[in-house]
Amino acid sequence: MFIKSRSLTQVVGWLLVQVTTQVFPIFEIPNWALRLIVLAIIIGFSIALVIAWAFELTPEGLKRTEDVDLAAQTSAKSHVWIYVVIVGALAFGRTFHDRSLRVPQ
Q1: Dihedral sign (CA 66, 1, 57, 75)
Q2: Residue ranges with strand state E in 3-104
Q3: Is this structure's pTM higher than 0.90?
């Protein structure tokens, strides 16, 4: 669970930085606000990392990591294959869509 929560935190932080760098110039928001958001993400990531290391999220709620019996938990079936299929289909469709828009010379 530690790896999943860390990955989710990284993705959310990256997404926030991308959105702010694209949107802030449009609304003429000063650069110090962008720096403040990036700093808050760095601080928040380190806090989330410590919490994810110290605690485990179980169906019964949030518990300390050493109190959780990891062998007793049922592991969720991995559905990674569906994500691979979806991304592959999108890439395949994008390739043929781009080719259909080209004008022959």
Answers
A1: negative
A2: 55-58, 61-64
A3: no
Radius of gyration of the chain (CA): 21
Angle subtended at Cα 56 by Cα 50 and Cα 58, rounded to the nearest 5 degrees: 155
**What are the tens digits of pLDDT across the range 57-66?**
777 877 887 7
Task: Provide the token pair at 61.
Answer: 């709620």
CA atoms lying within 13 Å on the CB side of residue 23: 8
Q: Count, in order, helices (H) and strands (E) of the chain.
A: 3, 2
Residue 65 CA to residue 68 CA, distance in Å, equals 5
Q: What is the spatial distance between Cα 74 and Cα 76, in angstroms, rounded to a whole number?
A: 6
Determine the residue type at 27.
F
d(CA 102, CA 59): 53
